[in-house]
Design goal:
single chain, 244 residues, globular
Length: 244
């Protein structure tokens, strides 16, 4: 019994590390993820068993005027904390672990939509759906079951050092997103100046104005992945709305 309790205590930090909630604790969540990848890698080193590391498409948005692509250079964790996961994956790959990376956009259904979910909570709290400037900055998106199918294909392929983008829609303008949410929640929609971003969006302001389109052309060719689910706006039009 004592041995079981001891093992459970050692596992607790790893279990907490698997919580990837988008929140003010985002930086700590990314650091926890890095620690989990390191721990998993220590067990898998020297085997052919695949380890799929999850990252975000934004870290590959490094070529001006082009969408993020799978083989682009990446932004470091000092700029985008989520990059810590890929850094940890590269480190364990150097130790002989079969690592590949799946980069996510805004993964959606009618209940959750990645970063858009906390934005919706802010809209409801403030009584207005805001976007910055002309709202032309874009966020990539994919339906949750399409993303799940991509993970399965990536596991079956088990290609070392592969990078995959789970992107169905290259970029959905923030104005379109705000307007769809406004229609569903029956809230007004308005543009705010970039300097108002932090006052309105709080911690989410670091993402709210970014233009983050991403391509999945290479992924589709490598894995034969063809997303078929509804688009982001369609899911927002049927957004599950609770009283809470």
């Amino acid at each position: 019994m004592t041995k079981c309790k001891s093992q459970s205590a050692r596992l607790q930090p790893l279990l907490r590390a698997l919580t990837h909630s988008i929140s003010p604790a985002f930086v700590q969540n990314c650091e926890d993820d890095r620690r989990v990848i390191k721990a998993l890698g220590s067990v898998l080193a020297g085997s052919d068993r695949p380890l799929i590391v999850t990252s975000g498409t934004a870290i590959a948005k490094t070529v001006p005027d082009q969408p993020a692509k799978e083989d682009n250079a990446t932004i470091g964790s000092d700029v985008i904390p989520r990059a810590a996961s890929e850094g940890a994956g590269a480190a364990v790959a150097a130790d002989g672990v079969n690592v590949s990376v799946v980069r996510l956009p805004q993964v959606h259904d009618t209940a959750r939509q990645g970063l858009i979910t906390p934005a919706i909570a802010m809209y409801r709290e403030k009584g207005v759906c805001a976007y910055l400037g002309e709202g032309l900055n874009r966020w990539p998106a994919a339906y949750v079951l399409d993303v799940a199918r991509l993970y399965r294909l990536a596991i079956e392929k088990a290609e070392p050092n592969a990078k995959y983008h789970a992107v169905a829609e290259e970029g959905v303008p923030m104005r379109d997103i705000a307007e769809a949410i406004g229609r569903r929640l029956k809230l007004p929609v308005k543009s705010i100046a970039p300097e108002e971003s932090h006052a309105f969006f709080g911690w989410l302001a670091i993402f709210a104005g970014h233009d983050m389109p991403a391509s999945s052309e290479q992924t589709r060719k490598k894995l034969g992945w063809h997303p078929t689910g509804p688009g982001l706006i369609a899911d927002l039009e049927h957004l599950h709305v609770s009283d809470s």
